[in-house]
């Protein structure tokens, strides 16, 4: 069949939408993207103020090979458009008792640093990494490559490693079965950050993340993460895909059995042979397809956490910070319980703090620090909303904690601030209740499975992004979009 005449409409230009669009266009389909905001990238977003350049969304790039593959589809070389640099210090971990433990790229140096914490830790680390590697290898042959249901994976791994896949135990149990030191347990538990989930609820297979970080590196995009979005825009242009900004889609139109068009906010109808929604699965069903999903589906697709995202320009440099830092809660388990089980603001949150000037001085004026502080917090709860005042109180608590843990006079050195609450995130990206990583990974709700790429009802409707398998996090949503593009091309 001639693919060139087929029209694909993509709703939203997050990484999942962009990668689906690039893949479809590279396959010869006619692609048009409709984005409600005035720039592409979705949560990969930027704000420039008074000489500071704030990455509003992601700050850690992992698995750059996914992006290399995507750019190659457009006949481009990733590194020519998006210069990236590996970080040697991955994370610096601060604890309330003054302890500070680095995670570093070099494995031998890592073991020396761990030995200073616990003499048993280097051997425990080796065994943990062998387990993490196994989780990655078992997932990489199916789930990460596009499988959509537990049954597909069971069939793929039957007699071939299924029992090695750590699905029923929690991620925390997995970590604790290797590490005995409580601080090391806290640190390796916090790899759940990458998917906005709790290590006490997420399945052990998510322990593949440390292997991904150590084996494939932790990267920074020179000039700021938004250069990734700009590089993708260039790829779209190379492939002559249409990009329509400030065009909100208000409905996906059907004839009962297939999707026929989308309708934009100004009333224009755009006919399409295929529609790909990068609007999350639940909002897309409720707002664009006007269907309500059952209680079981909503429970299964519970959103991942949100965050209080505090961007500070400060007229002081804090030399003790690495590029990526964690300020741990005194009681990590309570932090996770508050956010994911009690759904309340954490009383003593673990704070992720990014200081990109350690790698890239261009993102702040001389003598200043550009800081992103991100405690994970619950998503918007319409039945019992957090008040604006409570978010302000949490901001205060976060800044006080950072000052107590060494960032002296932080508050009095702030010269620029931009803070995003969960309602801001929901309003800007239409994510489900302000989630920042799509659907939560929880072994009781979903075994870490998200929604399927293809609509169960309409043959020519597809979904991509953080709420869809294997989504959550930049490389996974990008892989998801590529898999959607491949599926559409295969269907022709
Ligand atoms: C603060 C923060 C920190 C993060 N840190 C990291 C990190 O360090 N590393 C990492 O890998 N990931 C991180 N993430 C997660 C990562 O950013 C996301 O997983 C990923 O960018 C989401 O991509 P997506 O394809 O799901 O689309 P989204 O980014 O959600 O974009 C969806 C797009 O669709 C548009 N849209 C929605 N509805 C409509 C409509 N009806 N009409 C038109 N347009 C519409 C939206 O405006 C938006 O542009 C972070 C996210 C946040 C917010």
Per the principal axes of the C-alpha atoms, what is the gross shape?
A: globular
Q: Report the helical percentage.
A: 25-40%
Q: Which CATH class of the domain at 7-51 and 58-83 and 226-301 and 439-490 applies here?
A: Alpha Beta
Which segments are poorly predicted (pLDDT under 50) over 5 or more consecutive residues?
none
Largest sheet: 8 strands, mixed
Q: Termini, distance in Å? A: 6 Å
Structural class: alpha/beta
Number-wise, the strands total 20
Number of helices: 16
Q: Into which percentage range does the β-strand content fall?
A: 15-25%
- What is the rounded Rg? 22 Å
List all distinct small molecules, including ions and cofactors, that are bound in this structure.
Answer: flavin-adenine dinucleotide
Going by CATH, the architecture of the domain at 7-51 and 58-83 and 226-301 and 439-490 would be: 3-Layer(bba) Sandwich
Give the CATH topology of the domain at 7-51 and 58-83 and 226-301 and 439-490.
FAD/NAD(P)-binding domain
Short account of what is shown:
The protein is an alpha/beta fold. It is built from 16 helices and 20 strands. The structure holds flavin-adenine dinucleotide.
Describe the protein in words:
With 492 residues, this protein is an alpha/beta fold. The protein has a domain at 7-51 and 58-83 and 226-301 and 439-490: FAD/NAD(P)-binding domain (3-Layer(bba) Sandwich), CATH 3.50.50. Helices cover 34% and strands 19% of the residues. The protein is built from 16 helices and 20 strands. The strands form 5 sheets. Strands 6, 7, 14, 15, 16, 17, 18 and 19 form an 8-stranded mixed sheet that branches. The protein is globular, with a radius of gyration of 22 Å. Residues 11-17, 34-37, 42-44, 57-60, 248-249, 278-279, 307, 309, 374, 429-431, 436-438, 465-466, 472-474, 477 line the site of flavin-adenine dinucleotide.
